[in-house]
Amino acid sequence: MNYFYNIFTTLAKGKTGVFTGKALFVSILAFGLMLSCGGNAPVSDIASGLDSKDKTEEGDKTDGTTPPTQPEPALMETTETTYLADGTTKATETVIRADGTKKSETIYYADGVAIASETTYYTDGTTKDTDTSYRIDGTKEASTSYYADGTTKATTTTYRADGTKEATTTYQADGVTKATDTSYRADGTKEVTISYRTDGTKEATTTYRADGVTKASDTSYRADGTKQETTTYQADGVTKASYTSYRPDGVTKEATTTYRADGVTKASYTTYQADGVTINYVLCYTETGDDEGCNASHDLSYTDTDA
C-alpha cells in the first residue's frame, strides 16, 4: 500500500514538488493505468512519461517553431601597425581585408604622423595597384598606377608643392612607351594633352580653355612629328572656328578656312605663300556659302597680321 501511495504522491507533485491540479489529474490516470498493469509499472517510467509530455507541451507553446539562430558575426577589415624602437611612434600601417589579403600599406615619416607613402593592392593582396608619395607637409608629390601585373606602369602623375596636378603621363601596354602627356595649369585645370602613336611618335595635341574641359584646338601631326593641320573651336569647344593646314616642314601655313557661327558654313578661305605668312589668295563667302569676293580682285596679296 505504501508503494502505491508513494507513486501517487510523486506524480501528483510533478516536477515542482508541489501538488497541482494538472499533476493530480495526470497522477490519477497513471495510477489507474498502473493498477491495470498489475501494479508493475515503475514510478520512474511513469514520471519520465510525464516529463516528456510536459516538454512537448512546453514546445507547443512556441507553435512548434525553432528559435532563430544568431547570424555569424561579419568578418571585418583589420589594421596591423608597426612602431619605431620607442614603441609609440608609428612606422607602418597595413590594412588587411576580411579574407586575409593585404589591401593597403602606409609608411610614415619619422614623426609617426605625416604619411610618406601609400601603396594599394589588387584583390590578391600582393600585386600593386597604386603607389603615392607625399611631402612632409601632407601634399601629394607623385603617384603611379600599374597594370594588372603590378609592375608595368599605367599612369604617372606629378604634383606641385601646393598639391595641384602638374602633369600626367599614361603608358601603353609595355609601361615605357607613352600613350598621352597632359599638363595642367597652376589651378589644376587641364591645359594641353598630347597623344602618341604606338611607336611613340606624336600623333595629336589638344589645348583646353581656362575651365580645363572645353577644347580650344586640335592639332594632328605626321609620322615624322611635323604639324599637319590645326582645328580651332568656338566657345562651346565643339563648333569649328577655323581649319589650317601646314606644309611638310610643319611650321609654315598652307591654307586656312574660317567658319561662321554654325561651324559648317565657310566664312573665308586663305592660301599662303612659301613663307606661310604672306597671303596668296583669299575667298570670302556669303552666309549661304557662295563666293562673294573679299575685294574687287581675287589675286589679293598681303601680309596676314594674325599669322
Write the layout of secondary structure elements.
Blueprint: H1 2-13, H2 21-36, H3 43-60, E1 78-83, E2 90-96, E3 102-108, E4 115-121, E5 128-134, E6 140-146, E7 153-159, E8 165-171, E9 178-184, E10 190-196, E11 202-208, E12 215-221, E13 227-233, E14 240-246, E15 253-259, E16 266-272, E17 278-284, E18 302-303
Antiparallel strand pairs: 1-2, 2-3, 3-4, 4-5, 5-6, 6-7, 7-8, 8-9, 9-10, 10-11, 11-12, 12-13, 13-14, 14-15, 15-16, 16-17, 17-18
Alpha carbon gyration radius: 44 Å
Assembly annotation: single chain
How would you classify the helix and strand content by structural class? mainly beta
Q: Report how far the terminal alpha carbons are from each other.
A: 132 Å
Helix content: 10-25%
Task: Give the overall pLDDT as a whole number.
Answer: 82
The unreliable regions are 50-61, 296-307
Count of DSSP helices?
3
H/E element order: HHHEEEEEEEEEEEEEEEEEE
Q: Describe the sheet with the most strands.
A: 18 strands, antiparallel
- Beta content comes to 35-45%
Give an account of the 3D structure.
Strand 6 (140-146) and strand 7 form a beta hairpin. This protein is mostly beta strands. The longest helix has 18 residues, at 43-60. It is elongated, with a radius of gyration of 44 Å. The chain has an 18-stranded antiparallel sheet, with no helix packed on it. It has helices spanning 2-13, 21-36, 43-60, and strands at 78-83, 90-96, 102-108, 115-121, 128-134, 140-146, 153-159, 165-171, 178-184, 190-196, 202-208, 215-221, 227-233, 240-246, 253-259, 266-272, 278-284, 302-303.
What's the short version?
15% of the residues lie in helices and 39% in strands. It has 307 residues and is mainly beta.
